[in-house]
Amino acid sequence: MRALQRPAALLLLVAAALLAGITAAGGAPVSPRAVAAAAIAASYPPELLLLFERPRTARMRDAKLRAEEHFLDFVELLWPVLDPKQPFVRGQVQEAIALHLEALTAGRIRNFLGNVPPGSTKTYLANVFWPAWEWGPKNRPDFRYMAWSYSAELALQANEDCRKLIKSEVYQRFWGDRFELDIGSDAKGFYRNNKGGWRRSSSVGGASTGFRADRLIFDDPHNVKDADSAAALLDATRWFARSLPTRVRNPGNEAQHVRVPIWVRDIHGDLLDDPDDDRPVTASATVGIMQRVHLHDISGIILKNPALGYEILLIEMRYKGAEHPARKLETWPASTIGYQDWRTELGELADPIRFPEAEVATMEARMISDGGGADAIAAQLDQWPLQIGGTMFRADWLPIIEPHEAPGGVDKRGWDFAGSKARRADMTANACVRRGSDKRFYLVDSAAMRGGPGDVDAFIRARHLLDPRDLDWSIPRDPGATGIHFAEYVARELAPGRYVDSTPEVGKVQSAKPVSSLAQHGSFAIVRHPGCEATRAQLIDFPYGEHDDLVDAISRALAAHVTAPPPPEAWGGYGGTVA
Fold first, then answer.
1. Which helix (H) or strand (E) holds 365?
2. Is the pLDDT of residue 577 over 50?
3. Which of 65, 145, 193, 361 is the most exposed, fewest CB within 10 Å of its CB?
4. Strand ranges (DSSP E) for 260-323?
5. Which helix (H) or strand (E) segment is 526 a member of?
6. Using an 8 Å Cβ cutoff, are 516 and 393 in contact?
7. The pLDDT value given to residue 4
8. Which pLDDT does position 565 carry in this prediction?
């Protein structure tokens, strides 16, 4: 904008000089202040104002225009309101965050996730300054904001800081004429203005029923201290999946225009203001700004699901480039707004002014000494947690033993079916679990494949030929007649002469709990076999891993040992209950 003003300013300067010469030749006095007043009324560039002895007015107008055009200029202008003794450090990290927030305001993107190291002023930028910028400088006081954090206290503080900006003398001088805060609802946790906009804060999982917003902001939804808590992780991810999407005010992908009836505008006195009154209905936007705490945290869910439509900003403390695990993912999205990390050297720091090498090294040493270990550094600084565990199986619970170490016993095989060739589709899996003579359970073998219906049939037949006839199978039965018919088809056509039990599917997590309990108490082991490492990895990742087919098969095989009815005397077919 500043570059575009210069030709106009030069033209105005020339015109002013010619005007001065003409009027002087005609004997008429020239009033610089009158010319300056006219320039102010016509919104002429500040350069012209400076020429005609109005430097203070010019600087004020310039500051206002800069803050309205560029988000970080607004931040610099209002920063002393919140931190008068500490200057705002405007680095590349802050520029990157601002670029994405401006894109949200402009409607170029709808959802934004920023994974940035601690100390990057991410809360101030996304949860304090940005809402105030949209209400005032961008003239959208009708926007409604809902903000969440893992802590209700932190959420309230961000709300209060935003309100403090709005009430400041500078903000009111420049944009106080655009809206007013409603004194009847002017509290920390909730306040509204006279243009229909409001702002509300809550903790993750806190009450928000009945409120729908244009801007949904989740700011550090996970507590770093709860990184190893399965319950806390599950609560936060469930909130993201189940509650957050229901708080959207306008779910459309693009801004729509709605024409308000003339008689309605007439009653409200809006007819003369805008005869057409083609009002935009802006699509709601979601902003997530956080540091990673776990591989399966909310960021992990977003990274694995590009269909959620998030623009992702990843800034690790020490640059890893294309070698960063997140950027290696098949689901890693390319920037739609042209953003590219400014660093070119591996290991280059993100913010060498605020966090130079010595400070980063001290931070890393402190994280390790405080018990966080390398995983804390990987999660909070590198934005990719080393921990690959889910919430139900730990690696040290799942020993791999050699075949000769497993005692004899009774074997049962469980199945989980799928029938798609798509690259990321679920797989058809089976697993054989033995109840040993020592009363412990052993995963004897497991296998999985991806393919269409014909491939699945061949996979089942091949396994049937390999298994002894007295090895019972347990297969899932989908609801309805189709599920019953498929179970009968497997027993009659694919595994004739074998007892095949069929029971309805229950929740995956619920089914896996007995396996998890046995593993935790040392009563479950994996016998070495082809693919055992992949099966073990899937157990460790459960329930947040990309696939859980083998886990389902194992759960079903174990359940067959405990709950399956005894086979009839004459084996040879479907043993499920037809109802």
1. helix 357-369
2. no
3. 361
4. 278-281, 285-290, 310-314
5. strand 524-527
6. yes
7. 42
8. 58
For residue 15, the one-letter residue type is A
Q: For residue 451, what is the DSSP state?
A: -
Instruction: Tell me the torsion sign for CA atoms 69, 73, 75, 79.
Output: negative
Q: Count Cα atoms within 13 angstroms, Cβ side, for 502.
A: 24
Retrieve residue 487's tokens.
Answer: 């179970």
Q: Which whole number is the average pLDDT over 261-280?
A: 58
Alpha carbon of 171 to those of 175, 195, 317, 436: distances in Å? 6, 17, 34, 74
Pick the range with the lowest mean pLDDT from 416-420, 444-448, 514-518, 541-545.
541-545
Q: Give residue 293's pLDDT.
A: 87
**Antiparallel, parallel or unpaired: β 198-203 and 144-149:** parallel
Strand residue runs (E) in 260-309: 278-281, 285-290
Closest CA to 177 of 130, 135, 143, 128: 135
> In angstroms, rounded to a whole number, what is the distance separating the alpha carbons of residues 100 and 537?
36
The tens digit of pLDDT for each residue in 502-549 reads 877 777 878 888 999 899 999 999 999 999 999 998 998 887 677 889
Inter-axis angle of helices 71-82 and 55-69, to 10 degrees? 110
The rounded distance, in Å, linking the Cα atoms of 491 and 4 is: 77
Q: Report the b/e string of 68-97 with b at 16+ CB within 10 A.
A: bebbbbbbbbbbebbeeeeebebbebbebb
Question: DSSP letters of 407-440?
Answer: PPEEEEEEEE------TTS--EEEEEEEEETTS-
CB within 8 A of 254, min separation 6: which ones? 107, 283
Count the residues in the chain.
579
DSSP 370-403: TT-HHHHIIIIISSS-S----SS--GGG--EE-G
Tally of CA atoms within 13 A in the half-sphere of 147 that contains its CB = 32
Q: Could you give the domains of the chain?
A: 2-67 (no CATH), 70-249+284-328 (3.40.50.300), 252-279 (no CATH), 395-562 (3.30.420.280)
